[in-house]
Design a protein that fits this description.
heterodimer; A: 10 helices; B: alpha+beta; four-stranded mixed β-sheet; 9 helices; globular
Chain lengths: 267, 222
């Protein structure tokens, strides 16, 4: 008999079949626990820090690190360095679709980058005050996330294709994305993109600006309001801290990172 | 403004189809304006209707929404298909994203150069059988309920059932070992009155992508 815990953490329902529903059960499989242990308060149910499982680099996890850092939330990281670690996560049934990022938070094992980001944005009040604000944040965040994922994927391409991809990122930033955000800021004259309040959209935009600037330092030269925005958001205390050396922010992908990922995922 | 939502897209599945399914399942009527010539797309761009110069675009509640996920999130909230709390929403999102990942692979198959098609198809079969369908079958098995999350119909069920139809179109045998998906969920959702209507011919549901659509998409560089 396996004891499954509901999402609320309040009811215990006993399922007849030995089925593992990994993203709903606490960190330790119940069958491993003695009766005594079951009575003890479980770390997963107490206010534990979120735990991030990923490679030691940006990839798809970086936007999640930014969001947590900006929200002032401390988090732990486990880095995937060996194939064995990855296989163990899979075997333990912790990766719903066999993929990372994985974030352990509030008794859940969440995968899928956007699902994680959405949950965190809502949890830390960075997702707007009503559905109309939320949808604007989603539109802006989705756009910038697409751009940043292009950069993440470019690292894995052969040198010529990689250069082409990165050039395209800069072009899209300059012609498709940054003009839109410059206009949004110009039209309402406020400090933040949505609802005159700091949100996930602002965090994503700053992250995207910095990432594209790493590719082309002059990219903001036609966007004065974005320049001011960049300074303003960078000076928010939690973000300022995250931008300092020694934080959990990760460097741009290099060949060492690409090799490590290829090794773990056997690509 | 109590007008019907208006969908701006090609007369084909692409990135808009999942939005059509969602609204159909919610029993909400919508209008469609099809982009058939380059001038149609230019007009939308010149009208400043497309935030990032891209479609899908949906006019709803006085807004012009772009970005498929933003559109789906808004509608799922509006039509109560997004769970009862944040944690249910997180599960719904996780499942929906998984469906979207496989759906994206299947959607791009017709646009694949012929030399790469076989390899792509093999990959899709492999992911369907070993990664995605087992995950969802397992979810249903683990709680024994009728729907994926919270014992209630949500967008996750609608997206998944739509995907199951596409998998079936590709190769019905891929569904063979997944009774809870094939017999239970797919049948249950298909029989909901609003869904039943949408699954009939001459609804707003779009047929599989054919050569004509591929040519149109090439013109627009979608």
């Amino acid at each position: 008999m396996l004891i499954g815990q509901s999402l609320e953490g309040v009811e215990l329902s006993i399922t007849k079949e030995r089925v593992i529903n990994p993203h709903l059960i606490p960190l330790k499989h119940p069958r491993e626990e003695s009766q005594e242990e079951i009575r003890k308060p479980k770390p997963a149910l107490m206010a534990a820090k979120p735990k991030l499982w990923y490679f030691h680099g940006r990839g798809r996890m970086e936007s999640i690190r930014w969001l947590l850092a900006a929200a002032g939330v401390e988090f732990e990281e486990e880095f995937l360095e060996t194939r064995e670690q990855y296989e163990k996560l899979q075997k333990d049934g912790r990766l719903l679709f066999g993929q990372v990022p994985l974030v352990e938070i509030d008794g859940m094992e969440l995968t899928q980058t956007r699902a994680i980001l959405s949950y965190l944005a809502a949890k830390y009040n960075l997702h707007g005050k009503d559905p109309k604000e939320t949808v604007r944040i989603d539109m802006y965040a989705d756009g910038t996330l697409d751009l940043m994922l292009m950069v993440a994927l470019a690292a894995f391409k052969p040198p010529e294709e990689k250069e082409e991809s990165l050039a395209l990122v800069v072009k899209k930033a300059k012609t498709r994305y940054f003009p839109v955000f410059e206009k949004i800021l110009k039209d309402h004259g406020e400090d933040f993109l949505v609802g005159n309040k700091f949100s996930w959209a602002d965090i994503q935009l700053l992250e995207a600006i910095l990432m594209v600037e790493e590719l082309d330092g002059s990219v903001l030269c036609d966007f004065p309001l974005l320049k001011e925005f960049k300074t303003r958001i960078s000076n928010i205390p939690t973000i300022k801290k995250f931008l300092q050396p020694g934080s959990q922010r990760k460097p741009p992908p290099d060949s060492h990172y690409v090799e490590a990922v290829r090794n773990v995922l056997q690509l | 403004m109590a007008g019907k939502p208006i969908f701006h897209y090609l007369n084909g599945r692409g990135r808009m189809e999942c939005v059509r399914w969602l609204l159909a399942a919610a029993g909400v009527e919508f209008e469609e304006k099809f982009i058939e010539k380059p001038e149609d797309l230019d007009k939308l761009k010149n009208d400043r209707s497309l935030m990032f110069q891209q479609v899908p675009m949906v006019e709803i509640d006085g807004m012009k929404l772009v970005q498929t996920r933003a559109i789906l999130n808004y509608m799922a909230t509006k039509y109560n298909l997004y769970g009862k709390d944040m944690k249910e929403r997180a599960l719904i999102d996780m499942y929906s994203e998984g469906v979207a990942d496989l759906g994206e692979m299947i959607m791009h198959l017709p646009l694949c150069p012929p030399a790469e098609k076989d390899a792509k198809l093999t990959l899709i079969r492999e992911k369907t059988t070993n990664r995605y369908l087992p995950a969802f079958e397992n979810v249903l098995k683990s709680h024994g309920q009728d729907y994926l999350v919270g014992n209630k119909l949500s967008r996750a069920d609608i997206h998944l059932v739509e995907l199951l139809y596409y998998v079936e179109e590709l190769d019905p045998s891929l569904l063979a070992n997944f009774p809870l998906l094939k017999q239970a969920l797919k049948t249950r959702v298909s029989n909901l009155p609003a869904m039943k209507k949408f699954l009939q011919p001459s609804s707003q549901r779009k047929p599989p992508t054919d050569e004509k659509i591929i040519e149109v998409r090439k013109v627009f560089r979608f």
